[in-house]
Amino acid sequence: MNPTDRKYSKEHEWAKVEADGRVLVGITHYAQDQLGDIVFLDLPSPGDRVEQYKKLGEVESVKAVSDVFAPVSGQVVEVNPELAERPDLVNDDPLEKGWLARISSDTLEQDMDNLLTAEEYEAFLESEAH
Amino acid sequence: MQNGGGDHFQSHYMPNTPHERAEMLGVLGLDSIDDLFTDIPSEHRNPPLNIPPPMSELELRAELQAMAASNYDAGSYASFLGGGVYNHFIPSIVRPLMTRGEFLTSYTPYQAEASQGTLQAAYEFQTMVCNLMGMEAANDGMYEGASSLAEAALMACRVTKREDIYILDTVSPTYRQVVETYARPQGLRVHVLEAGRPRLAEGAACLVAQYPNYFGYIEDLAAHKVAAQERGALLVVSADPVAMGMFRPPGELGADIVTGEGQAIGVPMSFGGPYIGLFASRKEYLRQMPGRIVGRTVDAQGKTGYTLTLQTREQHIRRERATSNICTSQALLALASAITMAALGKRGLRQVAELCYHKAHYAASLIGRIAGYSLPIKGVFFKEMVVQCPASPSVINRRLLESGVIGGLDISHIMPRCMLLCVTEMNSRQEIEALAGALSEFSR
Amino acid sequence: MTARQEDFRRLLMERSVPGRVGAILPTPDVPLQKLPDESLLRKDLDMPEVPEPEVVRYFTNLSQLNFSIDTHFYPLGSCTMKYNPKVNDEVAFLPGFAGIHPLQPDYQVQGALKLMSLVQDYLVEITGMAASSLAPLAGAQGELCGILMIQKRHQERGEGHRLKMLVPDSAHGTNPASAAMAGFRVVSIPTDGRGNCDLEALKKEATPDLAGMMITLPSTLGLFDQGIVEVCRVIHEAGGLVYADGANMNALLGQVKMGDLGFDVMHLNLHKTFSTPHGGGGPGAGPVCVQPVLQPYLPAPVVERRGADGRETYTLVTPEKTIGKVAASHGNFGVLARAYTYIRTLGDAGLRQVSENAVLNANYLLERLRKRYHFPFDRRCMHEVVLSADWQKEKGVRGLDAAKRLLDYGFHAPTMYFPLTVAEALLIEPTETESKETLDLFVEAMNAIDREAGEAPELAQGAPHTTPVRRLDEARAARRPDLRWQRDGG
After folding, report:
1. Fewer CB within 10 Å of terminal CB in chain B, N or C?
2. Each residue of C374-433: pLDDT tens digit?
3. Do B71 and C485 touch (CB under 8 A)?
4. Domain count, chain B
């Protein structure tokens, strides 16, 4: 369920390095399931700087607001333009169509090294469940 | 007063008799009510309570009727007092409908399935406020006009991420004070500008105007919009909803946030409250709006229904990061206002506005002809005007009261020997002429 | 819902027919005046055209879609949904009260000012404080005023650096929201296993930047903090002031005075404790009461009584170092008039019985419900009881489901998922105006819902089944806000 083409944070975000070296980020299936129906996303603007493990934005469900943290540091180059009209994409397809932002990271290797592999993330979820 | 024998007072609001209390305590395995309060430090328990003894409805009603009758009310006197609170016509249907127990004694509609009446009425209110003000989104109301305007200024600061509020000197001085109270603790700065040609500094969050202004005159909102826009600031307007029956709505003139005192439509003056703050904005700022918002949706079977929505803005979810701390607001008065707008309707709202306009201008024409009186402000006014008097307004007002007239608001601390005079559809020609007659006694 | 009921879901603008009128206004009795330039006037006013009988029938039918105290038991925790006496409304609508203008000179409104002065006196007596201002229009505004007073007092003593406000983790959301509006930094203090404030955690936060603490007593868990005197002492010792959120005063009327326990300032919710109607979400009134130390800072205006022996006069005054005005006028007078009537009707003896019966009724419910519903504390409650539906959740019925199912049994749902510190919380407040028979029926319904959870959980999961609408799609409402009727259907 958590593909191996990307890495994960303990706050349930994923980061996937694209062919051009930029990083696509989003939240995991587990996270969207916990949040319930997502109704609104407050995301940074292109050009904004984000730091690994610091706040990237907010995700709102009907009766909760949760912070989303950046899995890597860098500059936001794009936020998913579909989400303004279709926040439910994050519920339906969090790993592909429901991506949140594209980040150009200057500390790419180091940041990615800090994150968990799919296997490690699943072990983490397992340990959290007990 | 005692009743029911013995020294036990049995209230008509509480069903438990001593017998039932004993029975219930028995279920709890307790002997006395005192056993329920053992967590309270004993040295502080059962303090003296110096409150008069219970009183019957019959006696109390007589006492309160006397207390009320000692006031000079607009039903018994011809009133020309305005300044933000107005004596307007309230159709007879409003009170019986708004005081129906199902509306009056229900809570905030958190349980939508059990509150569709309140919710649908709120949706009607939001629709009519939007139409009246020419705006895209309205909430279900704030406390009253002044705090509503203060919240609008705070919202403009959130939207623009700026900290400087510019407010025209033609905005009610009291409203300006309330904006100060709300803005200061958050480190926001309030600047007062002369209304003539307001110039905003770089970094302004908003320009705040009143429409018609405190003195009753129509502000050039379109020009204010230009002044605000030049600095990337929002135009925030506090508008009299009654004037919107004939004048162009602020939304059409570029306002970004519109507030107002809704008392004038359907709510008695009641010595200051409860009233209803109107609050509307452009749709793009919706998520920064304070207060409760009702939305239309469907239920599990696809049937149309209404529910509180966008609740993540509010204190019960976002807590210290909420758009406002507002919780209990003034829903019942929003209902009263909605019923009034529904009854007056398209035609009645226009008629009320025009009646105010004609009567106020008739009064102005009479008073302007009395030697010693003048109207120092030039411009288009609606139902209020500033009148400069030959004597102190407070002295004149005492004399007017003897003729059965509650005079205008003494604003001599702002403009020498001036009173702010208000004429509405409630004032008959006879009253207006009596006012002019009494004023002429001071003529020179 | 019947076809007839269904018809009343059609909105006013959908009922509107050109040419119909809902009210007749007089023709102008003055000579017509020249209207202003066209460019200042609106071209169109898109408002309903509906005749009076239809307006009446429409709103009457809407009202019947509601649950209310007049029609239902409404045990909504933290909201004090008690019976609202009708005489209170009658008083508020007396022409001598409803028809007076807030800007009339004091000499024209002595009766109204006297009433306000007496309300101030009564609230001061009930709370054991020194002075009161009736200006705040609701509880949350009272909170804001209270902590602004604390802030201004610190500033005037050259201690403007005191910007940390403590709030228990069980607090109502308005507490942290008000503190943030006042510019404070909010720090949450945990609750201990007994449901009291965690004193060790509190002491760690008693630092030089402490401004004060906001405490609800009894807490939103329905518990009287057994260490409250010590909590106040710790805050005071660190130079802070203690704010009491009086939302739950219904438990304490006449039993204890907040001023005696060490609180410096508090607000009261007249629409809860003093039974002014909630009106579907207001109006309320949130007067503040203070110890002498904060009296000069009270929000403006307050009523001052001058003279004595039947020759008293009443004047509105601005306290010396006031935090300012929070509204254009001097409070929700109509609500104050209702509260005055309530206090006089019940009197000293009646007010004490309010808290006695409120606490007795809540404990009776607790005793009878605790076999089937988990009560997470080992002690008695005050005027409300927080139960957890976690035992039911194991059978697939969440707190939300149980609450919605209660609607089918003809009871309003308790407050759900609040306080946040109790899982699957159901906060139940019966109030003093309910009879034992009503409480027994409620217990039967709660027990039936528990039985259903084991036998047919889908009943609660799909509830309510009998209300005008079923569960609403709130996600849709929030994703695509539809907030007003539009001609093109929006």
Report:
1. C
2. 999 999 999 999 999 999 999 999 999 999 999 999 999 999 998 888 999 999 999 999
3. no
4. 2
